[in-house]
Amino acid sequence: MRIEAVQGDITTQDVDAIVNAANSGLLGGGGVDGAIHRAAGPGLLEACRELRRTTHVDGLAVGDAVATPGFDLPARWVVHTVGPNWHAGERSTAMLASCFVRSLEVAVSVGATSVAFPAVSAGVYGWDVDEVARIAVAAARAWQNGADDSWEPEHPHPTGIELVRFVLFSSDALTAFEAALDA
Q1: What ranges in the chain are assigned the alpha helix state H?
Q2: Superfamily holding 2-182
Q3: Cα 18 to chain center, whole Å?
Q4: What is the pLDDT of residues 88-124, one digit of tens each?
Q5: Catalytic pick from 16, 33, 72, 172?
Q6: Nearest 5°: phi and psi at 17?
Q7: 15-32: pLDDT as tens digits
Q8: 0.85 exceeded by the pTM?
Q9: Is 33 a catalytic residue?
């Protein structure tokens, strides 16, 4: 599995799945979430409404993930995950790591082999981008290796993913992810 970081727009990535840094309501918002909803078109909001009517009536839990079609995006799938909000006292690194691991699990379940991630929780949710980069890269590497000190047995053995791309909006975020990849 190749792991890389690029600066760019996640909505234009030519990958099987992009990850949306969603809020628990799944009905759109600002930042990455808003950009993905705008680029995907109205079908994405309707698919998210259907999730809220059926399988996620109380919303999506922090650290969990769920997939919808990509609609008007180049990606076939959008994997929605809810990162912990530092400002709301959600400061568990395990919860943040779970966003990346669960997103990879969901991506595999829909047949994706390439996944693009934003810097989940590093925006309006207030996490330090250097910490997000370290946790995100460590989670991807744990997935790649299949087991390490942080791997939890309830997660299925990693398989299927050939590319993990971190797509960062700013040069500062790119620098943080490049440093984490070089560590």
Answers
A1: 31-40, 42-53, 93-109, 129-145, 171-182
A2: Leucine Aminopeptidase, subunit E, domain 1 (3.40.220.10)
A3: 7
A4: 999 999 999 999 999 999 999 999 999 999 999 998 9
A5: 33
A6: -140, 140
A7: 999 999 999 999 998 899
A8: yes
A9: yes
